[in-house]
């Protein structure tokens, strides 16, 4: 505990003080006493002030000694338009402490400020606080403030505080800002000139807004006959009617209100809403989260009935069933109307362009000399990497037959010689090019994931079990199938201004040519090229998602040292092979927003026209197309159009 004694005198609060004030002091101003007012007064307006500084100033004004608990922390917001006397300042101080969960316990000439146990329990329970707490003084002009206290007190939650300042005919309210605004609106209706009396009618069964509408209709008819003016104020949070006017008129309206407040077999309103665009199950989940917030807000601000909300989805009819209090049903209906709107669709077109080229040049000279019969010499040049070596040729000649598995390499092969000398020349020049164009496209709803796969489902061996040495057991092989081909996954989101956010997953996979589809499942090798990205694009804009440019240059030289480097003659002692492999892969996207049926029909017609031209062999082909002229005839046939069952 810290004992804080104010070292400030009341003179520090005077307007003409030359000393520099603290930041908080500039917001607490002393009002000079007038000739008709003996007691000094202060005007207090604080915003974001430290609560300990506020306690210091109250100690300086009242002369009270406060023992402050170390846990007393926070910021204070006080709004006051009328001057307050010494007792009113202290009453305001108590309200601020109660608002922030602290109690002021007076013991002799000292007062202890400690955390309020009840407020602490509410904080531990996680009481919702959608807006900040503040303390505000409301000046009442006409009605006696003491008569308004019983009427306003039920509107203040348990954690709030309400007090009357009878000397200045004002109310001090500590509560959330939103609820204080509601109370002020109600008091403006009650605080009318003429000093009218009022009556309060609490409804048990009828909804206060419906009852107020009936009473106001009755008042309008009564005024047409020259009756006295009467006013009806409805408080939906406590389900109460406040009647203002002469006693006789109030008595008649009270009797009418009680006659309307009769029990019914249904204490809540039921609505069945057929959805046109949204999904009932997903919307029911959204409304369930919203209804919890509405129910908590309703229960925290009222001391009346418990709010019950029931929301169910009928998937067979795509409808929502709402069961709740009438005011909450109206709120939920409005939310459903705003959410059940047509969703735009997005057509995503992808163009996968792959251009590859392979250029290979090879030249090799191999020879052999057998001079053992003359000079006793033997020599030769043999390169095994040329596909066919002179050594293998000599072996074939020695055996006198060609093996069945002998294959000749690509290119030209020239062989010359005799039984003592032989030369083999191989030459190859290859040039291959290939272009691959894939154009997958798919249509999906806004914020809805879609996927298209064009390919094959290929088996891959993941494990096997064989028999043991004795031959017992049940051998088996496990296979896992994977999709191989072109895959496009996209999730579009339409932003403001026709800008799209696209989450893209693009994958191109294939079986490596060295294995082929006829290979065993354990031997399969796949090539995979994938892109995963999130991009922004405008409606109809063509963008490049990504790509790969691969350029491989390989040069292999086999030669006899020294001899292979001799100009001109060195070609007889070496073999060269050069290859140039180039691959270009680019992926392009074009998203198009489809907002209505007309746009969807136009897009479908264009796509059908394109496929019809391709099926006909091109636009310049004079042959009749194998496809009908309109896409509708694919389903209706070439005869009469289908009957529209919607008529």
Automatic annotation (TrEMBL):
One of its GO terms (cellular component) is type II protein secretion system complex. Residues 135-196, 199-265, 270-345 form the NolW-like domain. GO terms for biological process: protein secretion by the type II secretion system. Residues 44-109 form the GspD-like N0 domain. The keyword Plastid does not apply. Keywords: Cell outer membrane, Membrane, Protein transport, Signal, Transmembrane, Transmembrane beta strand, Transport. It comes from Ectopseudomonas alcaliphila. InterPro entries: Bact_Secretion_Sys_Channel, GspD-like_N0, GspD/PilQ, NolW-like, NolW-like_sf, T2SS/T3SS_dom, T2SS_GspD, T2SS_GspD_CS. It is found in: Cell outer membrane. Pfam families: Secretin, Secretin_N, type_II_gspD_N0. Residues 1-26 form the signal peptide. Belongs to the bacterial secretin family. GSP D subfamily. Residues 427-595 form the Type II/III secretion system secretin-like domain. This is General secretion pathway protein D.
